[in-house]
Amino acid sequence: MVYKPILIVAGEPNSIFSEIFFKSIKNKKYKSPIIIIASKKLIELQMRKLKVNKKIRQIDFLDIEKYNFDNKKINLIDVNFDQKKPFKRISNKSNSYIEKSFEIAIQILKKKITNKFINGPISKKFFLKKKFLGITEYLAFKTKTKNFAMLIYNKELSVCPVTTHLPLKKVPKKISKNLIKNKVKLIDNFYKKYFKHRPKIAITGLNPHCESTDDFNEDDKITKPTTKSLIKSNYRILGPFAADTIFLRKNRKKFNVIIGMYHDQVLTPIKTLFEYDAINITLGLPFLRISPDHGPNESMLGKNKSNPKSLINALTFLDLR
């Protein structure tokens, strides 16, 4: 059987991603060929720093169809980036390099050579520059995708924030019936496609205990009627539930996915429960995009102590699909 390759954008060059990438391909074998888009010169510097012994096979992305890939070597599409040291402080000097890496990846994905895509972390401060809330929104813009969702996936329990990296004061104005419905539909379709069953979904309220002293209660006016409408349409969803109790063991075991109204409402408990054992999947894109659930982590650069579990999980998820 021929498996489509897994395409990886290394992302921020001064991050722990290269370290966990080297550990991920050393500790486990994958049937799908892995292609990484990165600076060959910098990867070689980082390999020496981290004492990694692996040969590189350079790929011309314009002729990518002619290659017969395997994972005996690191398959690499070179993007020029001039840096003398293996690791430096993150700055805007890497912006054009990261942008070029994503452009190459999107070109390859548009050719339908593969639909499996992973990106390493980037710096929101330097790369996104407040133009996008996160890479989820950046890729949605690049692919002209209007409806998308961020799913933090674990086989025991996954979570999805209705709003992603918004400041809290902006969350209430962003929440709407249509936004919630779109997230639920994307999650339902994802589980049906990849797991052959419809997910059991819990949805939280926005306010503590789903109550508000304000005249306008978002949970009464938006969340409750939206949930009722989705139930009538045969979605397996219940709620809204108070966010402070839905993650109790007896409650969370009843569901596959918990949808929250804002980022930390669901990401804080999922990371507390599973730590690195989760992956970030963007639903709704024209390809299957996964990101390891961690950032650049500048404080750990070059120390060779970072945990590769999230990237291994991402590669494993994509491997046979």
What does this structure look like?
The termini are close together. The protein is built from eleven helices and twelve strands. The strands form two sheets. An eight-stranded mixed β-sheet has the order 3-4-2-1-5-12-11-6, sandwiched between helices. The chain has two domains: 1-145 and 285-321, 3-Layer(aba) Sandwich (Isopropylmalate Dehydrogenase), CATH 3.40.718.10; 151-279, Isopropylmalate Dehydrogenase (3-Layer(aba) Sandwich). 36% of the residues lie in helices and 17% in strands. The protein has 321 residues and is α/β, with parallel strands linked by helices. α1 (17-27) links the parallel β1 (6-9) and β2 (34-38). The chain is globular, with a radius of gyration of 20 Å.
Q: How many domain regions?
A: 2
Oligomer: single chain
Rounded mean pLDDT score: 94
Q: Biggest sheet, open or closed, and with what strands and sense?
A: 8 strands, mixed
The CATH homologous superfamily of the largest domain? Isopropylmalate Dehydrogenase
Alpha-carbon Rg, integer: 20 Å
> Judging by the overall fold, what is the CATH architecture of the largest domain?
3-Layer(aba) Sandwich
| CATH fold-level topology of the largest domain | Isopropylmalate Dehydrogenase
- Terminal CA distance reads 12 Å
| CATH top level class name of the largest domain | Alpha Beta
Q: List low-confidence stretches.
A: none
**SS strand fraction:** 15-25%
How are the strands of the largest sheet arranged?
A: 3-4-2-1-5-12-11-6
Kindly state the percentage of residues in helix.
Answer: 25-40%
Number of helices: 11
Order of helices and strands: EHEHEEHEHHEEHHEHEHEHEEH
Q: Which structural category fits the helices and strands?
A: alpha/beta
